[in-house]
Amino acid sequence: MLIDTHAHLNFNAYKKDAEKVIKRTLANDIWVINVGTQYDTSKKSVEIAEEYEKGIYAAVGLHPLHLNAGLVKMKIDKEEIAFNSREESFDFEKYKKLVLSAPAGKVVAIGETGLDYYWKPKTKGKLELFKEKQKEELAKQLKLAQEFNLPVIFHCRMAHQDLIDFLSNNSDIRPKKAVAHGFVGTLEELQKYLDLGFYIGFNGIIFKNIEGINFREIIKQTPLDKILIETDCPYLTPPQVEGRNEPLYIKYVVEEIAKIKNINYEKITRITTENAKELFNI
Question: For residue 83, is pLDDT > 70?
């Protein structure tokens, strides 16, 4: 059994065949956590999870790229639901009602939320406001996670030190349980997340060559009991296959980690599944 801890079967990329994808996923003993990026996709995650007795779960949250701070123009991917829709801020009560509306045990995390400085204003003043706004909305989501005693799925791009500093300076809302999803950072940043007790999520990006990032060494240095596996589908398709990614292809991520750590596939499968069940209480 495997658990894809970060998928987006709630996106437009699966609008025509989500049911078929889920059917073959479950038939291959793979469970899935569908992750929201704004209210529409969060609601869709919950709706999909409600359709299945077990094996399909939801996370709800506002991705920093879907926050409309009015300070920068950015391209939103057409693969997502309501891709032209961006929220001015995180509506705490609206998302709270969404969590409460779901059957018990179906919403297993808040996220994905965090910081993303890929698209950013060019002027120093606007940049500072932009960063501050992302942190304000992140704080709201951490408070929601705290209220429901749920773990947090962190998205972070080009902002690891800011996120680490933010969490260090706001220990009252820092989650006890969390994952640094799709980790792309330095060994030093990795260690800081591990020091916070976070799990580290790996997906198809580990097959890419990114300047300054040594995925092989990062995976070696990440304790097995802190690793989660994910696809981030429909994105980051492993090189062994072509086209749209899906949970079935998570096996390639497991194979790569097993090879790097020199541990057999079955052990990686067993321990990462235990890790996912522990973090998300499933």
Answer: no
